[in-house]
Amino acid sequence: MKQFPISCDAPARFSTAPPRAADVVVIGGGIVGVMTAWYLAKAGSRVVLCEKGRIAGEQSGRNWGWIRKQGRDPSELPIMIEALDIWRGLSAEAGADFGFREAGVLYLGNGAREMGRLESWMDHARAHALDTRLLSRAEVSAMLPDAAGWAGGLWTASDAQAEPWRAVPVLALAAERFSASLHEDCAVRALDVAAGRVAGVTTEKGPIRADRVVLAGGAWSALLARAHGVNLPQLSVSATVTATVPIDFPFDGAAADTHIGFRKRQDGGLTLAMRYLHELFIGPDAFRHLRAFWPQIRSDISSTRFRPVAPRAYPDAWATPRRWSADQISPFERMRILDPTPSASAIEDMRTHFAAAFPKIGKPAIAAAWAGMIETLPDLIPVIDHAATLPGLTIATGFSGHGFGIGPGVGRVVADLVAGRDPGHDLTPFRLSRFRGGSAVPPRPIR
């Protein structure tokens, strides 16, 4: 069953030539870009979405598929609560099943220290009247019979999941029905700027006039922003994910301890990943933003494997141009889809940890493995803000591996932000200016 991830070899679903003018251009076909286009189109805006490769070809189609409030940074919780409400109606509105289920999220405590960390998050759950509750060792054992003993857990029954490689393309098709104009194989080479503000974009298929542009380019956002003088201290890390063959497994939700995360898929297999392990390819931006990221690196250095050279044409590869002409092939065309090589050692580690947790099942057989590039910021929460130095540009990026679940809520917020309407939430924590001067920003104590 070939369903994940979406590759550049997949046929384009959105292949028409883009129009020459729009009210808003959205750059990036991940879930944030797609849902921003969805809400703009529903509100009557002429919106064009440009994706250099395939809708959901990168991290929005390569993630774990979790839709969770649990464990969120408190600044994200109001938008995430709204996002879950939106998710509940999306299958019906899109007219397709993409596996949305409220099957719950369970964090498992490996010992007293981890249980203390989980218990501390209950303050945020209570503040937002969530259904989150602490579980005893016996309660966890009842949910996961025949598993190695955990000290307890944190459980939110209303949290959910969906199949990301199916969900985002389905939502894109629905956005098109709402009159959004979507285009794959259509890289935005540069922003067009006139009189100090955005006047449109230049794509590989020609210019599009628009006085508002949303940059939701994931791992590519910082490269395009910096080319226009907007400093965004964003790096990207590679994380490996696997899909097991169907397994007789007693738990339908998503769960994670300090080692692994797992989720029951619709096809009966598990999506399995190492919870904290990721690879950082060292390039110019890694040095440029070292000061800002140092607190995060120092606090969790054992979870990062450092690679001295990024693959050719990656956003922070040494040879990737930082400046280019809009009438020439851009870095975004030279790498249509980031498709990192999955880590063989990580795959074996996750199988080993799973077998230790579930000895009666043992090491699961793997049906597929892939990796994705996760864009991250020093404090692990996104930027959702207008670019003060370039009027007309709005940035929504840096979701640090948890953008899929919150994506519909962010799309609604960004659409209103761009249209000049009240976004309905306090966006102060997501302001771009918090990184001004390159100063270090303490990492948030959640994942």
**Major sheet characteristics:** 10 strands, mixed
CATH class of the largest domain: Alpha Beta
CATH architecture of the largest domain: 3-Layer(bba) Sandwich
Percent of residues in helices: 25-40%
Distance between the termini: 31 Å
* CATH homolog superfamily of the largest domain: FAD/NAD(P)-binding domain
Report the oligomer. single chain
Structural class computed from helices and strand pairing? alpha/beta
The strand count comes to 21
CATH topology of the largest domain: FAD/NAD(P)-binding domain
CA radius of gyration is 21 Å
Uncertain parts: none
DSSP strand (E) fraction? Answer: 15-25%
CA-based shape: globular
Brief account:
The chain has 447 residues and is of the alpha/beta class. It is built from eleven helices and 21 strands. Helices cover 28% and strands 23% of the residues.
In terms of topology, how is this protein built?
Layout: E1 24-27, H1 31-42, E2 47-50, E3 66-67, H2 77-94, E4 105-109, H3 112-127, E5 133-135, H4 137-143, E6 152-156, E7 160-161, H5 164-177, E8 181-183, E9 188-194, E10 197-203, E11 206-209, E12 212-215, H6 221-227, E13 235-244, E14 254-256, E15 260-264, E16 270-274, E17 278-281, H7 284-288, H8 290-299, E18 304-307, H9 331-334, H10 344-357, E19 366-376, E20 383-386, E21 393-397, H11 403-419
Parallel strand pairs: 1-2, 1-12, 2-8, 4-14, 12-21, 17-18
Antiparallel strand pairs: 3-7, 4-6, 5-6, 9-10, 10-11, 13-16, 13-17, 13-19, 14-15, 15-16, 20-21
Helix pairs in contact: 1-5, 1-11, 2-11
